[in-house]
Amino acid sequence: MAHVELSVSEPFAGADRDAPSDPEGSLRRWGRAAAGANEPCLVIDGKFEIVAISAPACRLLGFPDEESAVGQSVRSGVIPLVDFTSPPVPLPDGDLEKIPLRLAYTSGRLARGLLRVQTATEVHTIDAVSTPLFEGDQPVGSLTFFSRI
To answer: What segment(s) does the record annotate as region Disordered (predicted)?
Structure first.
């Protein structure tokens, strides 16, 4: 019969345990992962600015390339979000606080919802799943994965 032993250790044990917290550390790490991802995803910070975006997300959201998206504020309409009416109308500013990207950050919890995006050639619906990114106990941004419906 096989014998298995388990041990439990302190979380984050080691040299980094007492290191001072870097409020941008989590965003930089997740930003590098998102920028190189084969899945459509992006990272935003607490100011609602795009920190990193994958190439598939650029195509899905209508950006020509990653450089044109990074640093842009989602509040500025850089992602052309529209409502679910026909014909579609640009999403009002008040509703931007309710989209998963922002809601995950403000609530500190997982958020999911449908978005409609109007690119130069079409309007399409996207499922968005967002998770908050933390540095210690404080949310510093969110990571969102997209899937076209």
So the answer is: 1-27
CATH number at residue 60: 3.30.450.20
* pTM of the predicted structure, to 2 decimals: 0.81
Q: Is residue 14 part of a domain?
A: no
Task: Work out the widest C-alpha separation in the chain, in whole angstroms.
Answer: 67
Tell me whether residue 48 is in a domain: yes
Q: pLDDT (tens digit, 0 to 9) for every residue of the chain, 149 residues total?
A: 444 555 454 444 444 444 445 545 889 999 999 999 999 999 999 999 999 999 999 999 999 999 999 999 998 889 999 999 989 999 988 898 899 999 999 999 999 999 999 987 889 999 999 999 999 899 999 999 999 99
